[in-house]
Specification:
SBP; globular; 41% helix; five-stranded mixed beta sheet; D-Maltodextrin-Binding Protein, domain 2; 2 domains; Sugar ABC transporter substrate-binding protein; Bact_solute-bd_prot1; 18 helices
Length: 449
């Protein structure tokens, strides 16, 4: 999502012609006789007959989602079905969507949500329909393989992503080069570099520039994503196949210990990390208070546009535990936003086509070209235009292709317990071992698993 209205309007003017050309090209293509293929032309299939409009629960204000607006316009021009986008208020969107689904309402045909928020809870509640029968196999093969399981339950796919939000390292390239170093790729390199970049510039005994920062606020999904990233690049995972915890493993302990040591042993990260959410943390980067930080790639525009140091920023893959090989020994943490279909929709078959089309080349191309979001369909990575539009695309695309995310029931409760445990370790109220043991015990007691 982008946050500059003038930029949005200018991009819409530029891309109106592009979208028109794309629509004209695709509208002549027909996939006949195969229900697993998407439809782009005549004759009108059964699923489109009598359907005038579909309503989509959009994840936030439309002014920040010009790619979605264009994508839905494209769907309308190709199929004749108007798409009504409801801009859900960001403060209450999860509660509002959950309430509507729980009441069995047909208000929204399609909903736009990160699977990590609501999978498998919405499926277990019987609110969604599977999409396998209308997803082309070739499309599935274009998605990062390790990201697909998080959209599934019992072999059925319920969510289709149209963008991803991988974790990346933001760093001040000028400062790194100024100490004769290169971007860090391992934890030991990160610590060594962060020590050089942690400075008391005026000699008053207070740190003016921290070498490295991360976000560990107890609010929402912040710690889930931050600890999850450290856990993954340590070679660990959150859950076993049977749904019981796997993060209390040696890898999980290494991840939590490293987070604690960055603050308390190496003293390269500020104690205030336990109050930072990602947005404010990236602002510290732009202001010069932090030299390096890990965050969500969706914040890249905010980071690069920050003052006064945004133009000096660079992006790389998050550093990993020493001795591991990306993609082989571990996956990077990623998430993303996806379409799913309401079981109570009055136009289920048409809604399924809209949801699935969001995972294809066209919708993902728009995400990259219009909003500079990271596509969830890796075939778009071959587009020279998209590659030229998204800064540091080569670095980010490698992260996406070697990324994963896990989902689990009772996610909000899991995140609350995880946050309390991680913060207790950073504050040194508990050892990392004690914190992990407490988290598992508390999750079991409160029936997270």
């Amino acid at each position: 999502m982008i946050n500059n209205k003038e930029a949005i309007m200018s991009r819409k003017v530029v891309f109106f012609i592009l979208v028109t050309v794309i629509v004209a090209s695709f509208s002549s293509i027909t996939f006949a006789g195969d229900p697993g293929k998407l439809w782009y032309g005549e004759p009108t299939p059964e699923w489109a007959k009598g359907v005038d409009k579909l309503r989509v629960f959009n994840l936030g204000a439309l002014e920040y989602d010009p790619a979605i607006v264009e994508f839905c316009l494209m769907f309308e021009k190709i199929t004749g079905i108007k798409v009504d986008l409801y801009p859900a208020p960001s403060a209450t969107l999860l509660e509002e969507a959950t309430r509507s689904l729980a009441l069995g309402e047909s208000t929204y045909d399609v909903l736009d949500f990160p699977p990590i928020w609501c999978m498998p809870d919405w499926v277990d509640a019987g609110w969604l329909v599977p999409l396998n029968d209308v997803i082309p196999q070739k499309m599935i093969e274009q998605w990062p393989p390790a990201m697909v399981p998080s959209t599934m339950k019992d072999g059925k796919i319920y969510f289709v992503r149209h963008q991803t939000e991988p974790r990346v390292l933001f760093y001040r390239k000028d400062l790194v080069e100024g100490v004769g170093a290169k971007k860090p790729t391992t934890w030991s390199e990160l610590v060594e570099l962060a020590k050089k970049l942690t400075l008391d510039k005026n000699g008053d005994g207070n740190i003016d520039q921290w070498g490295y920062g991360y976000s560990a606020s107890p609010t929402g999904e912040t710690i889930h994503e931050t600890y999850g990233s450290f856990l993954y690049v340590a070679g660990g995972k959150f859950w076993k196949e049977d749904g019981t915890p796997a993060f209390n493993s040696p890898e999980g302990l290494e991840a939590l210990r490293f987070m604690v040591d960055l603050v308390n042993k190496y003293k390269v990260s500020p104690p205030g990390v336990i109050t930072y959410r990602e947005g404010p943390l990236t602002d510290l980067l732009g202001s010069g208070a932090v030299a390096m930080a890990e965050g969500d790639a969706s914040l890249m525009a905010r980071v690069l546009g920050s003052k006064p140091y945004g133009e000096k920023m660079a992006v790389a893959a998050p550093p990993h535990r020493d001795g591991l090989v990306p993609g082989k020994d571990f996956k990077y943490f990623n998430k993303g936003i996806a379409y799913c279909v309401n079981k109570n929709s009055k136009h289920i078959e048409a809604a399924k086509r809209l949801a699935v089309w969001a995972g294809g080349y066209e919708a993902n191309w728009l995400e990259g070209a219009v909003e500079l979001n990271i596509p969830a369909n890796t075939s778009v990575f071959e587009s020279s235009f998209v590659r030229s539009r998204i800064p540091f695309f080569d670095e980010i695309s490698k992260v996406v292709e070697a990324s994963q995310v896990e989902t689990h029931a009772n996610m909000s409760l899991f995140e609350d317990i995880l946050a309390k445990g991680v913060i207790s370790a950073i504050r040194q109220e508990k050892t990392p071992e004690e914190a992990l043991d407490w988290m598992v015990s508390e999750m079991k007691r409160r029936k997270v698993f």
